[in-house]
Every structure is written in C-alpha cells, then in structure tokens.
Amino acid sequence: MSKMAELDMVSYDIEQLFLEGMTEKNISKTLDIPVEYVYAWMEMNSIDPEQGARVFDSLVKGLEDFSPHQTVNS
C-alpha cells in the first residue's frame, strides 16, 4: 500500500488525536505509524509544526462560538 493510501486511512484518527492535544510523536506511537505520516498530515492541513495544536485549538474555539440556537433575532 502506498504512503498516501495509508495516510488517507489514518488521517481522521490523526486529526482527532491532534485535537485532543497529543504531540506528533505520541500520535505516531498511539497509531503505530511513522511520525512522518503525522507531519505529512500537518502539511496537508497547513499546520505549522512549530505552532502545533494551538492553531487547531483556535479553529475549534471559533466554531464553538457559533450556536444554532442563537441568532441575530434572538
């Protein structure tokens, strides 16, 4: 199986563990994949390894601010 096919199979798992705050090395160990796969996923999602989870945290926080129950007319 090619690297891209394997990366595609674990990309959701990488994303979830990354959102939970795991480091790249811990994600690699947990999923039993090369750490290069994690870095490749980060590159595909335009995440700078230096900034790491802080970027994702800010994106998730921004989404949490929106509620389907709060509208302009509420």
Features:
mainly alpha; 0% strand; single chain; 74 residues; elongated
Please, could you describe this protein's structure?
It contains four helices and no strands. It has one domain. The chain is elongated. By secondary structure, the protein is an all-alpha fold. The chain is 64% helix and 0% strand.
Strand content: under 5%
In DSSP terms, counting alpha (H) and pi (I) runs of 4 or more, how many helices?
4
Write down how many β-strands occur, each being a DSSP E stretch of 2 or more residues. Answer: 0
Given helix and strand content, the structural type is mainly alpha
Task: Report the order of strands and helices.
Answer: HHHH
Question: Can I get a quick summary?
Answer:
By secondary structure, the chain is mainly alpha-helical. It has helices at 3-19, 24-31, 35-44, 53-64.
